[in-house]
Structure formats: C-alpha cells, structure tokens
C-alpha cells in the first residue's frame, strides 16, 4: 500500500496512476474519506442486479425498492424523482412514496432507474431523504472542486487497455466513493449525470434488471463537450447575475431597471415582454390569435422568462414589467393600448402642421356655398369637460302666425363642425386621422383623432366665434317625422354658438329653478348669463322649442317601433374617471357615477338623430355612397314585455332583442332607432367615418367627383380610395376593443377598493346560455356586468351586496 497523508482533499494524480499500475489501493491516514478512495482495474463479475435476466420487470419492482421515475406522463422534459415502491395502484401502476411523504401513481414505463442495493422501510421516509441528501452533498462537493475527481477517474480508465469497455455503476461507486451501498450508488449516479464533469461518461441503455453501465468517452468528444459546458456555464452565470439584478430591483419600490446598462440582447428581451404581457386579459381564443400575430416577440419573451427562472406566462411578464418599471409600466398600465399599437401622442411634424393650419387656413372651397346663419341662436350643449365641440342646435322661426301649427312655424337646424374645411384629403393630418379612425375616450383621458390644439381650436364650434359648419335644416310634420314636402337643407355655413352644459340646460328648462323665493332671478340665471350673449328669456324660449321638437321626435320613433317603445326608461351611461393623485391608492383616484338622461340629453340625442336621418335621405335621393347603418330586432310579444318588471329590466330586454348592427352603402332600416335609414355624420372631429361622409356630401354639393368608391368592401385601396364601409367598420372595432375593457377594469378596481361597503344592485335578467349567471345593474354607477350566483335570483330583485364580491 502507498501511504498518503493529504493536505488536499484528493490524492495527486501521480499516486492514482501508480496505484492503478500496481493494482493496489490508496490508503488514507485521514478519517474523512475522500471522493476517490481506491481504484482497481478489476470489473464486477456480473452486470445483473437480480440474478438471471428477465424481461418481466415485476420481479424487481417490489415493495421497498428505491427507484427513479419521471412524474406525470414521463415526457422527456420531466426531471427524475426518487421514491420507494409501496405497492400497486390499479392493474398496472405502481404506488411510490417520495421524501415529502406523498405517494404518487406511476406507470411502469416511467421507472427510469432502479437504485442498486436500494431497499428501504417504506414506513420511514428518512431513508429516502438520506439518499437525496447524499446526492446533493456529492454534487455540492463536486462543484467545489470543479469535477476533478470524476475527471481523474475518467483519465485513469482511458489509460487501461480495455478503456473502450463499459463499467457498471457499482464498480464506479466503489472506485469513486469507496463503497457500493445504495446511498453511494445513488450519489455516484448523480455525479455521472448531473455533476460538473458529467460529460466524461456516457450512460448506456439497458433493462431495469441490469446494472447501469457507463462508458468513458473519448478525449476529443470530452474536450468538445467540456468546451460547450464551459460556454453554457458562462451563459448560466450571466443569467444568474441578471436574475439577481431583477430580484434587487423588484424588491425595492424606489428602484427602476436601468436598460442602458444591460446588453442589447437583454434590452430586446425586456422590450419583448410587452408583447406577452398584453395578452394577460384576453380569452384563450384571443390569446392564441395574438400569439400567432406576434410569434417572434412572444417566443423571445417566454424564453427570457425561463432563463431568469420565471413562469413563461402573460401575467408573469406583466408582473415583471411593473416591478422593474420598464417603459413606465405600473399596475394600471392599459395593455390594450400597447397591444393594438394605439398612438397616444402626435409626431412633431403633425403638431407643426396643425399649428400652420390654425395660423394660415387654406382657401375655403365652399366659400360660395357657405350660408351665413350667425343670426340664429346656436346652442352647443355638452359636458363641461368636453373640448371637441362638434355640434350645435338652432330653431328658426319661419312665421309668427299663431294660427299655423307650431311644427310648420319652426325649422330645426343642426350645425355640425366642418373639419373638411381645413383638412385636405390625403394630407398628413388626414392620413393620421384615418389611421386612428376615432377619438378614444378612456377613464384616464382622451386620445384625440386630431391634435388637440386643432380639435379644440379651429375645427370646433367654439362659443363666441364665427366658425365654419355643415348645417342641416329640417321641417317636421305633425307626427314628428321629417316633412317629405319640404326636403332637408344641407349646406356649408357660418355659425356663432353659445356653450351650455347639460346641467345648465336642465336647470333652465325647470320652472322651479328659474326664480328664487322672492320671485326674482335665481343664481342659475346669473351663472348662465355669464356664458351667453342673449337674454335668459330668449335662451329659455329657444330651449323650450328644442325640447318640444325632441319630444315629438322621440314619440315618432317609438311609434315606429324603436327600442324605447319596449321601455321608456333609459339606462344611464356609466362615467368613469381615473386621475393620477399622489394621495390616492396606487397613485390613482377613481370616480364613477351614472350619467342619467334628462331633458338636455334627449334634446341633443333626438336632434342629432334627425340630422343623421336627413343626411341618409340626402344620400339615398342623390345616390351618394354613404355608410348606412342598420339593425334588426327580434320580435317581442306584449306578454313578454308585461312579464318583465318595468324600468331597467325592460330596457335591458330591449337591448337583448337588438341584433348586431350592420353597415352598408345601401340604405338599411334601423329597428332599434325606429328609422327607415340612418347614417352617422354628427361627430366629424371625433370619428373619421363621419368626416368621410362630409367629404362625400360636400363633393356632391360642389358637383365634384366623389372621393370614396361605392362598394361594401373593407379594403383600403390607398390614400383617397378607401371605402366608407371599411373606414366605418375599422373605427368601430378599435373603439370597442379599448373603451369598454378600460371601463370594466376601473370599475373592478373601484369595487375592490370599496371592500365590504354595500352596493345596491338590480337583477336585470338571467343569462340565456349559462345557469346561475345573471346580468346585474348598479343604479348609482350605471354599471352593467355579469355575476355568477350560488342562489337563484329574480328579475327586478334589489340586493345589497358587498362591493368586493361584485368585482
């Protein structure tokens, strides 16, 4: 024996070589056994674990046997686990006990390795733990010495004459760890398959009954694999360092990830997280479609998350972006805006173009046709926060003869902003407006179709200024319909508006608010007087005439079978405002309220519908391709209406009976509105389809070629050849994809913040397709949403519920 008192853990290679040559073993004077304690050239006499060969694994897969197995289906991606066979599960499966104390059912095909000499008491899981602990300890020691022991054994085995022959696991365990116990065998297998120098040996396949065999790889193969392993280790170290930086930033609310300090590869990967994160709120079907559309970025994001030890899911991508503060992401970032690539600002060249138009307006192509209507009081009625003022209302008194019916003495004028006066087809601003399609109204603010300096400036019907408009003048018959004997007037015009809010108009029309207790003018009058350039009496008189017209129009539409004929109650709109505030939760203050429908709202709605109907009539009469909008409604019986509680429930019934709207260049009846034909042209500053309609009508008025072709295609054929149908459909789709989800998100957040506070809801109806799913209505907020209930609910039932349960 060669005596050796080590100062290092492993003996010098020269001693191992000498021992191999002499066929002797090294003896150590230390009490701590080194990893490599002996080396003998003698092979184990048998490669069988359990005697004679048998193709039947049942003879070896007995109770107490230690085995390695893959969990689940045994797919190649699963890692091996250690456990002891407890018994059978069903006809074929094995019941295996793991070190966690849990038992799993495993098919025999998932058994990958039987531990040599591995038999344990299945009532004592500590024996399984000892094997796992030994393997972990061996791998840790192996990492500390860089796999030196395995590599030295590989070198010695290669020098033998029969180096190309295989060697079994038991022999390797004796050579490497000094014994062939099941614990040592399991630890040895871990070193050979997971250790630093695992590339030195190739595991040979065989039957479970055979001892696992290993073959030392040739030098050139090992060198290649070692080089590759070093590269992989360096790459792993790089990702480990990145993971640590990510953890450091994520755990500190005051830190933000510095992208400039990262490699280009990492910067691209972090940016790609946005593509994946934006799928977090989508349905599985929508998610699948989006993944196909952005497959490269999403694949990059998923791989990045896996590299830094995170789950490759949209929610994890969102969480990481928020925690790292990438691109300003926070908890409430609107992912739909990013996913749909909606521009939220205008390029500087567009802002410059807007400024140039305001300072140097182009020639007015309609100057000779423009009618001066500045003598008519024109009321622009909208919310106080509205900046894009795109319509105003007037009543023209045609005769003072009281013997004439009132409808024959009045002409209703609807003045619509005229952006086509300033924005030329095909110009940069026109192209950008067409690309955006519509102004988008979100709880966090408005994303306008035109630069706001233009939209709220020269394009709007701003009060007190002479502004350009497209005016629609209509005479009504005695039933409230447009008088067929007096065709509507559609003309470019000049108007001068008075700005009033909905609340101001409602107060002016309320006789009890017009005088104080002493019979004098109320404070309401004084506040309005500051906003108008006419007497209160003149304003009230004009507003009452508009109210009369709106009531006539509503009744006429109801007689035509509109949705209001089912229920006169109008469900309020939900208004959601989310404002940044340092004092609020998460830095955002949320305000939600119901926008109830009163006289002022009805005036604006009915007059706008009348103008849109008049433009549809003009388009039909003159054969102008316009985006006619139609809608069908399912038949509703009187019994069904009477069985439905009056109020919100009946209004919801009318909505349920309405089918999806259609758009065509051919006139269509709109059953929901009770109109024979209908277009939308009253908001050209906010909707490009309305602006395209203006171009069509004004080109016809000038006797010029129409800019948009007459077909129902969605195709965009160029700067001036897109169809009005394609423009209208695309704009409507964008608005639906953004506005409703944003409102729903902030409503959910609002209700969660209210916690256990009670909120009153009204049951509108049960879901036609899903059991125990109901539509609920919150009157105070104007919110309608689906709710799954464990108990049966009745239509019209009023319930007080905890707010957070509604979210």
Low-confidence stretches: 1-48, 50-54, 73-77, 715-721
The secondary structure category is: alpha+beta
**What's the overall average pLDDT, rounded?**
86
Let me know the number of strands: 26
- Net shape: elongated
The helix content, as a percent range, equals: 25-40%
Largest sheet: 6 strands, mixed
Evaluate the radius of gyration.
40 Å
Oligomer designation: single chain
Number of helices: 24
- Tell me the span between the first and last alpha carbons: 79 Å
Into which percentage range does the β-strand content fall?
15-25%
Could you characterize what this model shows?
With 807 residues, this protein is of the alpha+beta class. The strands form 8 sheets. Strands 11, 12, 13, 14, 17 and 18 form a 6-stranded mixed β-sheet that branches. It has a 5-stranded antiparallel β-sheet with strand order 6-5-4-3-7, covered by helices on one side. Strands 25-24-23-26 form a 4-stranded antiparallel β-sheet. The N terminus is likely disordered. It has 24 helices and 26 strands. Helices cover 38% and strands 18% of the residues.
């Amino acid at each position: 024996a060669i005596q050796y008192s080590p100062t290092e853990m492993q003996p010098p290679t020269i001693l191992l070589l000498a021992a191999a040559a002499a066929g002797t073993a090294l003896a150590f004077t230390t009490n701590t056994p080194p990893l490599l304690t002996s080396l003998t050239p003698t092979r184990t006499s048998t490669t069988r674990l359990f005697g004679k060969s048998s193709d039947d694994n049942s003879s070896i897969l007995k109770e107490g046997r230690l085995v390695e197995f893959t969990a689940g289906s045994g797919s190649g991606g699963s890692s091996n686990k250690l456990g002891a066979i407890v018994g059978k599960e069903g006809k074929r499966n094995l019941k295996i006990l793991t070190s966690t104390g849990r038992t799993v059912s495993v098919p025999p095909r998932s058994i990958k390795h039987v531990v040599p000499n591995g038999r344990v008491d299945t009532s004592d899981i500590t024996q399984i733990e000892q094997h796992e602990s030994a393997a972990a300890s061996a791998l840790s020691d192996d990492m500390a010495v860089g796999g030196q022991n395995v590599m030295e054994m590989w070198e010695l085995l290669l020098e033998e004459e029969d180096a190309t022959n295989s060697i079994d696991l038991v022999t390797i365990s004796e050579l490497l760890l000094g014994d062939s116990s099941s614990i040592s065998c399991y630890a040895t297998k871990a070193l050979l398959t997971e250790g630093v120098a695992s590339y030195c040996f190739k595991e040979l396949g065989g039957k479970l009954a055979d001892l696992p065999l290993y073959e030392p790889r040739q030098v050139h193969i090992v060198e290649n694999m070692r080089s590759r392993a070093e590269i992989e280790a360096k790459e792993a170290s790089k990702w480990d360092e990145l993971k640590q930086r990510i953890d450091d930033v994520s755990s500190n609310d005051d830190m933000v990830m510095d992208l400039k300090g990262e490699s280009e590869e990492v910067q691209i990967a972090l940016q790609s997280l946005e593509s994946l994160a934006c799928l977090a709120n989508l349905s599985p079907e929508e998610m699948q479609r989006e993944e196909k559309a952005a497959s490269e970025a999403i694949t990059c994001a998923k791989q990045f998350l896996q590299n830094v030890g995170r789950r490759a899911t949209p929610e994890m991508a969102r969480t990481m972006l928020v925690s790292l503060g990438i691109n300003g992401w926070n908890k409430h970032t609107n992912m739909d805006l990013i996913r749909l690539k909606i521009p939220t600002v205008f390029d500087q060249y567009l802002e410059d173009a807007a400024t140039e138009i305001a300072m140097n307006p182009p020639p007015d192509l309609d100057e000779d046709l423009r009618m001066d209507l500045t003598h008519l009081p024109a009321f622009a009625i909208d919310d106080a926060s509205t900046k894009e003022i795109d319509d105003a209302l007037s009543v023209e008194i045609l005769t003072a003869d009281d013997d004439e019916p009132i409808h024959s003495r009045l002409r209703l004028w609807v003045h619509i902003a005229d952006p086509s006066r300033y924005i030329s087809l095909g110009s940069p601003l026109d192209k950008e407006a067409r690309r955006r399609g519509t102004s988008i109204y979100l709880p966090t603010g408005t994303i306008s179709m035109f630069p706001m300096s233009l939209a709220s400036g020269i394009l709007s019907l701003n009060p007190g200024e002479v502004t350009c408009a497209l005016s629609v003048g209509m005479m009504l018959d005695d039933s409230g319909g447009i008088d067929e004997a007096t065709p509507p007037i559609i003309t470019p015009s000049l108007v001068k508006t008075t700005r009033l809010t909905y609340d101001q108009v409602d107060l002016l029309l309320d006789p009890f608010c017009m005088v104080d207790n002493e019979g004098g003018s109320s404070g309401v009058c004084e506040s309005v007087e500051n906003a108008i350039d006419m007497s209160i009496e003149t304003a009230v008189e004009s507003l009452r005439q508009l109210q009369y017209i709106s009531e006539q129009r509503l009744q006429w539409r109801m007689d035509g079978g509109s949705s209001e004929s089912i229920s006169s109650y109008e469900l309020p709109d939900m208004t959601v405002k989310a404002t940044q505030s340092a004092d609020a939760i998460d830095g955002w203050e949320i305000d939600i309220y119901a926008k109830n429908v009163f006289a002022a709202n009805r005036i604006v709605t009915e007059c706008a519908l009348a103008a849109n109907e008049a433009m549809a009539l003009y388009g039909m009469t003159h054969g102008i391709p316009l985006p006619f909008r139609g809608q069908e409604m399912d038949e509703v019986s009187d019994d069904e209406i009477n069985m439905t509680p009056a109020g919100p429930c009946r209004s919801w019934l009318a909505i349920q009976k309405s089918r999806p709207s259609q758009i065509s260049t051919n006139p269509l009846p709109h059953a929901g509105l009770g109109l024979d034909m209908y277009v939308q042209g009253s908001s050209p500053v906010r909707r490009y389809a309305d602006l395209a309609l203006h171009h069509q009508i004004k080109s016809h008025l000038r006797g010029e070629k129409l800019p948009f072709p007459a077909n129902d295609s969605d195709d965009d054929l160029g700067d001036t050849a897109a169809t009005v149908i394609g423009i209208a459909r695309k704009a409507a789709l964008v608005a639906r994809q953004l506005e409703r989800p944003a409102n729903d998100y902030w409503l959910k957040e609002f209700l969660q913040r209210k916690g256990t506070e009670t909120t009153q809801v009204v049951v509108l109806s049960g879901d036609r397709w899903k059991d125990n799913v109901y539509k609920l209505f919150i009157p105070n907020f104007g919110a309608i949403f689906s709710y799954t209930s464990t108990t049966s609910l009745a239509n019209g039932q009023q319930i007080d519920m905890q707010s957070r349960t509604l979210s």
